[in-house]
Design goal:
322 residues; binds adenosine-3'-5'-diphosphate; four-stranded parallel sheet; Rossmann fold; globular; alpha/beta
Length: 322
């Protein structure tokens, strides 16, 4: 395992490098800089995939997306959505989640399917396609946002203090993090994290979930931890595959929760070693503690207070609390 940098950074085309040189650029968490595009900060390779997906992705009514900013519980939600949508087809001991990392089953538009890094062919995906993205709502390919398309988006948000701690560990583990803790904290507070500012990302999906509740379901990591069965049932209903009375009676909700739990997924051989198919990130890096409130072990009271103040100010009037 190369723990310092397990991400395979692809070559960018000369044209794209020239385009990048026209964008505002800032230092991010990792050694690669961030570029500002349509109001959000991206690393170059993911920006290339994002723009390519904007140009080429053809949405289908039956598409389901898992969306988030990084380190908010995407791996968990990918597993849950996969298990729900495929529950009539797949049962243990042959369940695909027992032998595949959720990121290999549910690819990201801008990392796995589009751009120089592209290695998977979307034309080969069975319907309904279950896909993922970290792109902000306002930058999603037009057809996903179009009122004429009926595809659905599951969005997961997380308390920004826990997200920061998770992000910091992840970058230290799989990327060339070259920042001190205080510096990464400062960058996050300035909105300078991948796909940030995180508050605009979260608000974009939050507003859509209010305006189009049948298209966008807004979930919180903390709610999923506190009342997993209720949240999973909410996701199933939103996706149009609610649990039948017989399924509930037979313990199907608990079976899916168990299969997708931190303990089960992180304990599987397939998630303990090896790398993701396209990006080459260590699979085990997506499972750390899986708890609410770990920030208390890492942030000073002053840091916590500063993030809380920023979040309260940015979300003020939205009706959303994190
Ligand atoms: P921690 O670093 O706080 O442990 P993402 O999937 O968006 O990259 O987010 C990663 C975070 O989700 C990590 O948080 C990880 O441990 C946690 N996580 C991964 N799988 C999980 C699961 N099945 N249940 C709960 N949390 C999970």
């Amino acid at each position: 395992m190369s723990s310092s940098n397990s991400f395979q950074w692809p070559q960018l085309s000369q044209d794209f490098k020239e385009f990048l040189s026209t964008l505002p650029r800032e230092k991010g968490f990792a050694k690669e800089p961030l570029y500002l595009y349509q109001g959000f900060w991206y690393e170059d390779v993911f920006l290339e995939g994002a723009i390519s997906s904007q140009e080429h992705f053809q949405a289908e009514d039956s598409d389901v997306f898992v969306a988030s900013t990084p380190k908010c519980g995407t791996t968990w939600l990918k597993a849950i959505a996969f298990a729900l949508l495929n529950r009539r087809r797949n049962q243990a001991p042959d369940h695909p989640l027992l032998s595949n990392n959720p990121h290999d089953l549910v690819p990201y538009l801008e990392m796995d399917l589009y751009g120089e890094n592209k290695a998977l062919d979307i034309a080969l995906f069975p319907s309904p396609r279950l896909l993922a993205t970290h792109m902000p709502y306002s930058s999603l390919p037009k057809l996903i946002r179009s009122s004429g398309t009926k595809c659905k988006i599951l969005y997961v948000a997380r308390n920004p203090k826990d997200t920061l701690v998770s992000m910091r560990h992840f970058y230290t583990r799989v990327r060339m993090l070259d920042l001190m803790w205080a510096e990464s904290f400062k960058l996050l507070c300035e909105g300078l994290s991948g796909y940030g500012p995180f508050w605009d990302h979260i608000l974009g999906y939050w507003k859509q979930s209010l305006e189009n509740p049948d298209r966008v379901l807004f979930l919180k990591y903390e709610d999923m931890k506190a009342r997993p069965a209720a949240e999973v049932r909410r996701v199933a209903e939103f996706l149009g595959c609610p649990f039948s009375a017989e399924e509930v009676e037979a313990g199907e909700v608990d079976r899916i929760l168990e299969l997708c739990s931190f303990e089960v997924l992180s304990g599987l051989e397939v998630n303990k070693k090896g790398k993701l198919m396209v990006t080459g990130v260590d699979k085990s890096a997506f499972f750390r503690r899986g708890e609410v409130g770990d920030w208390k072990n890492h942030l000073s009271p002053e840091m916590a207070e500063r993030i809380d103040r920023i979040v309260a100010e940015k979300l003020s009037g939205s009706g959303l609390f994190l």
